[in-house]
UniProtKB/TrEMBL annotation:
InterPro entries, A to Z: AAA+_ATPase, ABC_transporter-like_ATP-bd, ABC_transporter-like_CS, ABC_transpr_CbiO/EcfA_su, ECF_ABC_transporter_ATP-bd, P-loop_NTPase
Protein's recorded name: Energy-coupling factor transport system ATP-binding protein
Keywords per UniProt: ATP-binding, Cell membrane, Membrane, Nucleotide-binding, Translocase, Transport
Gene Ontology MF annotations: ATP binding; ATP hydrolysis activity; ATPase-coupled transmembrane transporter activity
Protein family: Belongs to the ABC transporter superfamily.
SMART domains: AAA
Annotated organism of origin: Succiniclasticum ruminis DSM 9236
Length: 287
């Protein structure tokens, strides 16, 4: 496996708290679109912060084990140094916006990293185009809608050209159209730039067509990880994790248990209907 992130025997607790992450061992494959699921309070956000060095080296706390990003340990690294390799957008993305205009927002991190002004300007222009905000450099942040500000936060990450982007519930405050639009954008970036994505998501229906790998977290521990095809049935057997799977995958697993047949990992209702009909399950089944 060509891993871009490797987590080995990692434990963590915030100061004066119980363990949040326990014996975490995961590998994130280069170019994958990995989704992290788990109940509320499972440790998903803390895991995201650990992958970017915020935990424990900025937030504080006690830890054991090691995390490597692109072959280098995060220990002793500045968060700003790691940001050149792995970008993070938190669920509260508004807290990451620090400038008055869209152009200044994207250029801020570039200039802090020492890019010359001319290159920062060009990278800003291209990043805004990539997220569907062309020519918005002079727009005040309060002139942008919530969805546009979220795209702006993503543009700030893309401008640095990190190989890995970590997103914590990026569509939690969006309506269905906004959620579908954002994930189509992420898929476009994933395919065009080969960026490795790691996404915490509760609403898996939005990411269903795009995800390649799945990590399930419960009580700070990794319950399953790997390619979706290899781990979905295992996650289904856990009654607490089962409701987190998309409805299509729950139906698939239930049918497999009841019929002793194997079905493909459906990515859409149309795909499910086509296979069910081909196997003689109700000729009248429709999407």
């Amino acid at each position: 496996m060509n891993s871009v992130i490797s987590v080995s025997d990692f434990y963590f607790n915030y100061l004066r708290s119980d363990l949040v992450l326990k014996n975490v061992n995961i590998e994130i494959e280069k170019g994958s679109f990995t989704v992290i699921i788990g109940p509320s309070g499972a440790g998903k956000t803390t895991l995201c912060k650990a992958l970017t060095g915020i935990v424990p080296f900025y937030s504080g706390g006690d830890y054991a084990g090691e995390i490597k990003v692109l072959g280098e340990s995060t220990k002793g690294k500045k968060v700003s140094d790691l940001a050149m390799k792995v970008g993070l957008m938190l669920e509260d993305y508004e807290s990451q916006l620090v400038s008055l205009t869209a152009g200044e927002e994207v250029a801020f991190s570039l200039l802090n990293h020492g890019f010359p002004p001319e290159e920062a300007e060009e990278r800003t222009r291209l990043a805004l185009e990539d997220v569907g905000l062309p020519g918005r450099e002079s727009y005040q942040l309060d002139e942008l809608s919530g969805g546009q500000r979220q795209r702006l936060a993503l543009a700030s990450l893309l401008a640095v050209h990190p190989e890995i982007i970590v997103l914590d519930e990026p569509v939690s405050a969006m309506d269905p159209d906004g959620g579908e639009s954002l994930y189509k954008l992420l898929d476009k970036i994933h395919k065009e730039h080969g960026t490795t994505f790691i996404v915490v998501e509760h609403r898996l229906e939005f990411v269903l067509p795009y995800m390649t790998d799945l990590i399930a977290v419960k009580n700070g521990e990794i319950m399953a990880q790997g390619h979706c095809e290899d781990v979905v049935s295992h996650i289904y057997e856990d009654k607490e994790l089962r409701p987190l799977l998309p409805d299509l995958w729950q139906i698939k697993c239930n049918l497999e248990k009841g019929t002793a047949q194997k079905f493909s990992l459906w990515r859409s209702a149309d795909e499910a209907v086509k296979e069910l009909q081909s196997k003689g399950f109700g000729r009248g089944v429709r999407a």
